[in-house]
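Interim report, section 4.2 (structural modelling).
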Amino acid sequence: MATYGNGRRVAIVAGVRTPFAKAGTAFKSISAIELGKLCVAELLQRTNLDGKEVQALVFGTVIPSVIAPNIAREVSLLPLLPKAVQAYSVSRACASANQAITDAADQIALGHLDVAIAGGSESLSNIPILHAQGFADALVLASKAKSFPARLKALARIRPKDLVPVTPAIAEPSTGETMGQSAEKMAKLNAIAREEQDHFALRSHRLAAAGTADGRLTAEIMPVYVPPRFESVLTSDNGIREDTSYEQLAALKPVFDRKYGSVTAGNSSPLTDGGACVLLMNEEKARALGYPPLGIIRSYAYAALDPGEQLLQAPVLAAPVALKRAGLSLKEIDLVEMHEAFASQVLSNLKGFESKWWAERAGFSQPVGEVDRAKLNVMGGSIAIGHPFGATGARITTTLLNELRRRGGQFGLMTVCSAGGMGFAMVVERTR
Ligand SMILES: CC(C)(COP(=O)(O)OP(=O)(O)OC[C@H]1O[C@@H](n2cnc3c(N)ncnc32)[C@H](O)[C@@H]1OP(=O)(O)O)[C@@H](O)C(=O)NCCC(=O)NCCS
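Predicted structure of the assembly:
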């Protein structure tokens, strides 16, 4: 089976991220652009790479700034990078950083690039607040008015209801269903009990706390001094609760279906701010520059289903395709990193991997198989660590490759579910 790249193997050389901070906390006055700049600058400094070597920067964000929608270009205008670095932004909901990585990788595989930075960032503390249409119409009319009375007349059209701000919702534009409601629906359709969800959330916190305490997670995190005073510094993710217990989790009330639901603040990923990025190179170039790759991209696949169905189940359709393209089966995979939007989604995805029905939907006769829990999210996941939408894909990529190296494993599989009913899967291979 040919490895992705048609002979030009794509290496991931390094990855780094900011700590992930719950929205409204330490990073509340840092924009997504700044979070992106922080991690890209750190990546260049840690790798000691001359910025002149970087040819492109691809970045993802889910809720972009209305004023600076091409976040990638703003991030690329760092003093450490030449202005000639071309940069563009991508959007594939929670798989946006994965899209950035695969876009950059495709360009490397094509021979268009040798060195690129890809990743993403998100500030859910700084989302654009929009005006209602009535208010916006009145403002446009007033700006075109030729006299002061005409301007006043235009503004007089504004009604109290027009003053209610419009905030972006974490809901499907096509169905109106929120992510949380989708997670509830998936719990019910796939018979995922509340107890299972809470045990999974507890596991996420315990493993993330262990990875933080022993330095494995902190090794891929840069310290960030907290504005505006820059007197305190955040060095690890502030949503990880080393002291949480099953009893505490079980006591939380369901949020999205208060009467019959099972999805709580404890078994959901929290709204989070953060940035993450990786350095990609053509493998030959990496070796020529003296950078031993962390690993190479062996394959990837995207998939989608009807968002009105099971919104976060498409990784189940993407994973078998990525495995097939890699020429591997789940048994040969040493570690699995699965984005944890909600415990009910992870547990639904895992059930889907074992299901013949889902296998057939993906075009396969046999299911992917049962994921050995000892290989799954070994340093916790987004429930504990947090989930800055645009950044998570790069965090998972870095963690998977670092941990494969530590454990001496060869192959890693990652999956990410995303809004719009889309899913992503990638197989990476540790190189020697
Ligand atoms: C679920 C959600 C609404 C909760 O938001 P929130 O109410 O601000 O969450 P909080 O962190 O304040 O937690 C609520 C309560 O649960 C408690 N809690 C949360 N996690 C806990 C844990 N692991 N252990 C113990 N208590 C916990 C908090 O302490 C808090 O208690 P308090 O009210 O006594 O202070 C929000 O995180 C959310 O929308 N998540 C989903 C995001 C999403 O859709 N992502 C897309 C996925 S792709």
